[in-house]
Design goal:
By secondary structure, this protein is α/β, with parallel strands linked by helices. Helix content is 38%, strand content 18%. The protein contains 10 helices and 14 strands. The strands form 4 sheets. Strands 3-2-1-4-5-6-11 form a 7-stranded parallel beta sheet, sandwiched between helices. A 3-stranded mixed beta sheet has the order 12-9-14. Strands 7-10 form a two-stranded parallel sheet. Helix 1 links the parallel strand 1 and strand 2 (32-37). Helix 1 (17-28) crosses helix 7, helix 4 runs parallel beside helix 5 (145-164) and helix 6 crosses helix 10 (313-324). The longest helix is centred in the N-terminal third of the chain and has 21 residues, at 91-111. The protein is globular, with a radius of gyration of 19 Å. The mean pLDDT is 96.
Length: 325
C-alpha cells in the first residue's frame, strides 16, 4: 500500500454536495483524491481537484478503466439519490442506483483488490425512532424506499466483509448542512428540498415563502425538531473512519449528528437573525412520514473515532448564507 501522502481515494459522487466537501478536505490533508461522477446531480465546478473521471456506476467497463488507471487504496461512496418523496413515487430508480450500482462498484473493487469502503448511509434506516436520541443499536425499520435502499447496502457490506474481507465504515447522517468557509463550494440541489437552503433562498427573494409543515407536533413550539450537522464535520468523520480502517479497524456503522435538536421555527428565526431579512413564513399541514423529533446519539463516533462537531447552528447557517449569496 502507498505511504500516507500517496494514498489514492476514489470519491464516487465527488461532484455533489457532501462529496465535493470531502474531496476538498482529502486534498488538503495530503490524500490523492480522484472524483468519479456522472454529473446527473453533481456539478463539475464543485470539484476542487484535477483528477475528474466522468462515468456512471452502471457502466462497469468505465469503472474498470478508472481502477486500471489509478492505484486506488479506498473508495468513498456519495453517489446515491436522496429524495424521500421521489423514492416513494419511483422506487425502481432508487433500487437501481442506490443498490444495484453499488454492487457493481463493489464487484470492481474486489476485482482490483481494493478492500476499504466508506459508505454514506442515512438516519432514514431507522424509520420511526423507538427512542431519542437515536443510538446505532436501535431497530432498523425504514419507512420509504430511500431508507430501505441504504439499509440494503449496509446488509450487503456485512456479507461482503464476511465473505471477501471487505472492510467498511457506514455513516448514518442526520441533516447535512452548511458550506465550506471558503465560499467556493456549498449546497446545490435541483430541485432543492433541504430546509436551510430553502430558507436562505426565501431570504434572497428566490422563493416567495417558506413553509412549516405541521405546527401541532408534541414539541416545544409545535414544529418538527431535527439534528443538523455541518458538512465539514461529516467530511472530518469520514477521514477519521478511513484512517481507522487503514490502521486495521473492524467494519462499523456510526451515527453522525450534533446531538442537538432544533425546531423548524428556531431554524427560521435564526436565519432571519443572521441574514437580517424578514421573509414570509406559511404554516401548512404535516407531511406524511415526518417524525416529530430526530436527534442523533453520536457518542460511538466520539468514542471510537475521536470525532467531535466543530460547527454550531450559527456557523451552519452563516457559512450556508455566505455560499448562497
Amino acid at each position: 500500500m502507498n505511504s500516507l501522502e500517496q494514498k489514492t481515494i476514489l470519491v464516487v459522487g465527488g461532484a455533489g454536495y457532501i462529496g465535493s466537501h470531502q474531496v476538498k478536505m482529502l486534498d488538503e490533508q495530503g490524500y490523492n483524491a480522484v472524483v468519479y461522477d456522472n454529473l446527473s446531480t453533481g456539478y463539475r465546478d464543485l470539484v476542487t481537484v484535477d483528477k475528474f473521471e466522468e462515468g456512471d456506476l452502471a457502466d462497469k467497463d468505465r469503472l474498470r478503466e478508472v481502477f486500471s488507471k489509478y492505484d486506488i487504496d479506498a473508495v468513498m461512496h456519495f453517489a446515491a439519490f436522496i429524495e424521500v418523496g421521489e423514492s416513494v413515487k419511483n422506487p425502481a430508480k432508487y433500487y437501481r442506483n442506490n443498490v444495484v450500482n453499488v454492487a457493481n462498484l463493489l464487484d470492481v473493487m474486489l476485482k482490483y483488490n481494493v478492500k476499504y469502503f466508506i459508505f454514506s448511509s442515512t438516519a432514514a434506516v431507522y424509520g420511526e425512532p423507538e427512542e431519542i436520541p437515536i443510538k446505532e443499536i436501535q431497530a432498523k425499520k425504514p419507512i420509504n424506499p430511500y431508507g430501505k435502499s441504504k439499509l440494503m447496502v449496509e446488509e450487503i457490506l456485512e456479507d461482503y466483509d464476511q465473505a471477501y474481507s471487505l472492510k467498511y465504515t457506514c455513516f448514518r447522517y442526520f441533516n447535512a448542512s452548511g458550506a465550506d468557509e471558503s465560499g467556493k463550494i456549498g449546497e446545490k440541489h435541483n430541485p432543492e428540498s433541504h430546509l436551510i437552503p430553502l430558507i436562505l433562498q426565501t431570504a434572497l427573494g428566490e422563493r416567495e415563502q417558506i413553509y412549516i409543515f405541521g405546527i401541532d407536533y408534541d414539541t416545544k413550539d409545535g414544529s418538527c425538531i431535527r439534528d443538523f450537522v455541518h458538512v465539514n464535520d461529516l467530511a472530518d468523520a469520514h477521514i477519521k473512519g478511513l484512517e481507522r480502517l487503514f490502521d486495521g479497524g473492524s467494519s462499523e456503522a456510526f451515527n453522525l449528528g450534533s446531538g442537538e435538536g432544533y425546531s423548524v421555527r428556531e431554524i427560521i428565526d435564526k436565519a432571519k437573525n443572521i441574514t437580517g431579512v424578514d421573509f414570509k413564513v406559511v404554516e401548512a399541514d404535516r407531511r406524511a412520514g415526518d417524525p416529530a423529533v430526530l436527534i442523533a446519539d453520536s457518542s460511538r463516533a466520539n468514542k471510537v473515532l475521536g470525532w467531535e462537531t466543530r460547527y454550531n447552528l450559527d456557523d451552519i447557517i452563516g457559512t450556508a448564507w455566505n455560499w448562497h449569496r
